[in-house]
Amino acid sequence: MTIRALIFDFGGVLVRMADTGRRQAWAQRLGVPVSHLEALVFDSDVARRAAVGLAPEIAVWQDVACRFGFNDATMQQFERDFWTGEILDADLIALLRKARPHYHTAILSNAWSDARATFSSKFGLDQEVDLIVISSEEGVAKPDARIYRRTLDRLDVQAHEAIFVDNLDDNVAAAQALGIHGVRFESAPQALADIHSLLDGAGEWIT
Fold this sequence. Notes:
Helix 1 (21-30) crosses helix 2 (34-42) and helix 4 (57-68) crosses helix 5. This protein has 11 helices and 7 strands. The chain has 2 domains: 5-16 and 87-201, HAD superfamily/HAD-like (Rossmann fold); 19-83, no CATH class. The protein is elongated. Strand 6 (162-166), helix 10 (169-177) and strand 7 form a beta-alpha-beta unit. The chain is of the alpha/beta class and 207 residues long.
């Protein structure tokens, strides 16, 4: 077994919420659970359409604004606060930096139309990986096999030569069904240990 590529999910893996205080404050203000608020943003019909490029990102926030009667200024404040508390995982980024001279590296993300700009300008991730594949640009989202195959093709690797890390079971299972080595992210130390275990099993290592 030879590993030639490391592929990471974005939200919930490379970038995670370290402080949900702003979301909790909005949930309390609106009289709904935080989980309900997050579902309105991530799992609404318009959000699912935005994830495959059938709606712009702004439509997601306009949908939330319509549900709660926000004016434009409140909607914009809600959007800013919703993402406050996100952090880039320093240990995973360190792994990518060590890996990049020896492995192809990529981000494969289900994300909306403005995601590439956010990944680059806010987090500098365009400088950390060789390839970024975003569902809204592809018109197809994980766990659809097509988006994994496109990522592999662009990296010029076979499925069995890649490791894929994601925080959702369905996405990992879909990758594994194609022959990709899947790592279900639960924590950075666990994911790093699982990645190193796979590399060690292939007679490789990132020092």
